[in-house]
Each structure stands twice: as structure tokens, then as C-alpha cells.
Amino acid sequence: MDKKNILKKVISYSIYLLLIPLVVGIGYYIFKNKNYNLISIIVCILAMVPLFIHFEVARTSSREIVTIGVMIALSVVGRIIFSATPGFKPIAAIIIITGVAFGKEAGFIVGALSALISNIFFGQGPWTPFQMFSWGFVGFISGFFRLKETKFNLIIVVALGIVSGVIYSVLMDYYTTVSVDKVFNFSRYLVFLGNGLTFMIVYAISNALFLIILYFPLTKKLQRIKNKYLIFNYH
What sign results for the dihedral spanned by CA atoms 70, 74, 77, 79? Predict the structure, then answer.
């Protein structure tokens, strides 16, 4: 890997793993329950920066944006369709599949924007930036399992579904804790983790089930698109 690609990776990791969580956390402490839309917009802009850094050919970049838009639409529609079943939704599965197929940047963007856009239906609030980071982080982590060709490893697929459910629940319980105490209280955090254990288990199982159903057909199509149009090939 040359120095240019290393620099791009350092910038990408710094934004997704350091700058965005800092913006979400500090923004909440400064604004409390106000101006959460501003924080969400900042997160959106920051999430897109690493992807734009990789753009070198206009034609490729436009196709990547369209593809990401389609994946966001799928995850949003999936969350809305299953709105009657809390904790049982395909949104995380689609975010994970995006990360696996297209890489960390695409995974984070689809996760973050899916939370923001779907909350137009479910309701925006100070929790939205936390959801954006939580689902974005799930997509980012999934990018570490990026495939160069379509494969189906049941163990990895199920593990990704379960781990993503745990990650999302653990991060969102942090928000619940600070929203009650206005500061992080570890003892109360453990209580919320315990109270939310049932939701976490249901969510983790549903992620695994949706991945088992959707993983192979979707990754097969996405891999075909990637090879045909030569997109997301900068890793």
C-alpha cells in the first residue's frame, strides 16, 4: 500500500472512529435536547468526506453515489415495513451487506443516512445522531470482512448479525444513560444494559436471520455491479 492510500485510510479511520463520535458526544452535552438536527447534518457531511477523498474519476463517483443511495433506500424501506415488530428489522442486515460488499466507507454512510432518513418516519430527536453513529459503526466494522468475490460463510454471517445487534444495543444504551442523568453513570448504564437484554437478543437474532436470507442473493448482485462498473475498488 502506497503512502497516498495509507493517508486516505488514516483520514477515514480518524473521521469515523474519532471525529464523528466526538461530534455526537460533545454536541449532545452542549445542546442537550436542542439542535440535534445540526449535529445530524454535521455527521452526514463528515461521513461523506472519506468517500469523496477516494473519488478520482467522475463517472465512477456518480455510480458509487447512486449505488449507495439504492442501499440506503432498501434499508429505510425495510425498517418501515417492519415497523410493527420492534427489534425485528432488516436494516442492520442491509447495512452489513453494504459494508461487506463495498467497504467501510460505504457501510458507514449507509448506516448513518439510513438512521437519519428513516427517522423522518419514526421521529427525529436527540437520539438520531447516536443512531447514526451506531448503525454507521456497524457498517464500518462489516467492511473488515469485505469480499473480493461472492462467498457464503454461515458462521461469519451469523456472527456479524449477532455482534451488530450487541454493538447497536450497547451504544444506544449509552445514549439512554446520558439522557437520564445528563452525565454518564456507569451503574445506571449497567441497569439499562440488563433491562435491554431481551431487546438485544431479539435484535441480534433477527439480524442473523435476515442475513441468512438476504446475504447471498444481495452480495451476488452487488458483486456483479461492482465488477461491471469498476466501482468501490480503492481498497
Answer: negative
pTM across the whole model: 0.94
C-alpha dist (Å) from residue 53 to 14, 46, 102, 105, 220: 13, 11, 15, 11, 27
In a domain, 234, yes or no: no
Is residue 232 within 8 A of residue 103, CB to CB? The reply is: yes
- Cα first-last separation, the chain: 9
By the 8 A CB rule, do 165 and 194 touch? no
Q: Domain containing 26 — which CATH number?
A: 1.10.1760.20
The answer to whether position 164 is within a domain reads yes
In whole angstroms, give the CA distance from residue 184 to residue 32: 13
Residues 82 and 90: their CA atoms lie apart, in Å, by 8
Domain interval for residue 62:
3-229
Angle at 101 between CA 58 and CA 131, to 5 degrees: 90
In a domain, 105, yes or no: yes
Instruction: Look at the block and give the residue holding cell 461469519.
Output: 156
Mean per-residue pLDDT, 96-117: 95
Span 155-182, pLDDT tens digits: 888 999 999 999 999 999 999 999 998 8
Q: How many domains does the chain have?
A: 1
> Is residue 235 in a domain?
no
CA 107 to chain centre: 6
